[in-house]
User: Which sequence fits this backbone?
């Protein structure tokens, strides 16, 4: 288990060295070579003492060495929606964090927000690297002393996965294998893996428990399940501490308005329903398209379990704190409440105050009728319970950020 982070002491103040009593302008004095040598030695010693106070003395940084009482977490995909919120929470709790992201889906603007919030040396660093490049990943691990990995990085749209399945298997499954190999090679012993309820597919009974059969029906869910299988197989012959969190539909944003969700415009058609609702409320799109009204549910639309991102990252931090060497924990992260798409749309209208036009279309390929969690295991073992369960409130918080960031992070 990673050590509990402690509060860091205040940074040492910069010392000013004042050398007085030297008058080199007096040409009448005879050269005093012994005195000059003594001064030169004194200056050299002083310089060494000052340099030793620098984190990078000797060509290394605090990120490249383990420090007692400090847990250094690598957050993959830390420039993304969930990863950036997780980084914010980790930094707030005094963890040392390295973000790795190739920015294909993430936002450098989110990283800049975090850097402004935590400017102190040794708190946060950003590394631009593609996890699909094994050599670059191995180099990153060799140059940094990670204690744990939170692996969020992944493409994550069900519809897109049916159109580009190979991309999803490469990005999710292959990249997870690369991360695991690097962790094994550099003896990083703790993994918190970001999985999904999509691994369950369309279960016959509700609510979903951790023992519900995993029968994914789209490439996104299949790629995540393959990753889980690889992690579980590897963990059997290692002393790695593993936590796998299967979470449901994520909504909301940082309650203090520092971070939010800002997907790329070209991905809007694949994005979360909350993003589509906000685009419709803002007039970016003419209305909201609801796909599927003939499901076997009370109102004919899909039923989902919506989890606030603040609750979600709290579950990740609790999982990190409870991870034990040689053990695997698998948990559903949800509210335990199923809400229909129509309910969600009404909550979005109330949160935004906008008259959102709704167009009902055919089902989206790979979708399933109903999925919501039984979160009792994570409640009992990790002492975690979702606190932000009011749809309208979570959407209102996210809407407030959207209204102040009309251009995403580009407007900050």
Assistant:
């Amino acid at each position: 288990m990673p050590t509990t982070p402690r509060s860091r002491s205040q940074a040492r103040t910069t010392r000013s060295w004042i050398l007085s009593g030297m008058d080199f302008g007096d040409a009448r004095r005879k050269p005093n070579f012994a005195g000059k040598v003594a001064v030169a030695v004194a200056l050299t010693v002083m310089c060494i003492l000052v340099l030793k106070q620098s984190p990078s003395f000797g060509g290394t940084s605090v990120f490249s060495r383990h420090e007692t009482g400090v847990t250094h977490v690598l957050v993959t995909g830390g420039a993304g929606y969930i990863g950036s919120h997780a980084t914010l929470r980790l930094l707030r709790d005094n963890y040392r964090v390295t973000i790795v992201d190739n920015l294909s889906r993430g936002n450098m603007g989110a990283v800049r927000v975090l850097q402004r919030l935590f400017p102190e040396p040794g708190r946060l660093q950003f590394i631009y690297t593609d996890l699909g490049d094994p050599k670059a990943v191995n180099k990153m691990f060799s140059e940094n002393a990670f204690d744990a990995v939170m692996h969020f990085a992944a493409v994550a749209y069900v519809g897109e996965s049916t159109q580009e399945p190979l991309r999803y298997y490469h990005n999710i499954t292959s990249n997870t294998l690369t991360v695991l190999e690097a962790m094994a090679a550099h003896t990083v012993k703790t993994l918190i893996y970001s999985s999904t309820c999509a691994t369950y597919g369309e279960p016959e009974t509700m609510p979903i428990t951790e023992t519900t059969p995993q029968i994914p029906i789209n490439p996104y869910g299949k790629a995540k399940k393959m990753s889980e299988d690889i992690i579980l197989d590897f963990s059997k012959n290692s002393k790695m501490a593993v936590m796998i969190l299967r979470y449901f539909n994520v909504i909301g944003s940082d309650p203090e308005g520092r971070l939010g969700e800002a997907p790329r415009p070209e991905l809007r058609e694949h994005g979360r329903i909350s993003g589509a609702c906000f685009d419709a409320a803002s007039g970016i799109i003419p209305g909201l398209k609801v796909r599927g009204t003939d499901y076997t549910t009370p109102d004919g639309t899909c039923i989902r379990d919506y989890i606030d991102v603040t609750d979600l990252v709290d579950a990740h931090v609790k999982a990190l704190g409870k991870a034990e060497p040689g053990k695997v924990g698998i948990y559903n992260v949800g509210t335990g409440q199923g809400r229909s798409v129509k309910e969600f749309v009404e909550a979005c209208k109330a949160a935004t105050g906008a008259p959102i036009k709704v167009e009902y279309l055919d089902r989206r390929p790979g979708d399933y009728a109903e999925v919501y969690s039984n979160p009792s295991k994570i409640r009992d073992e990790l002492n975690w319970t979702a606190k932000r369960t009011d749809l309208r409130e979570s959407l209102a918080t996210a809407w407030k950020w959207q209204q102040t960031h009309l251009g995403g992070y580009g407007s900050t």
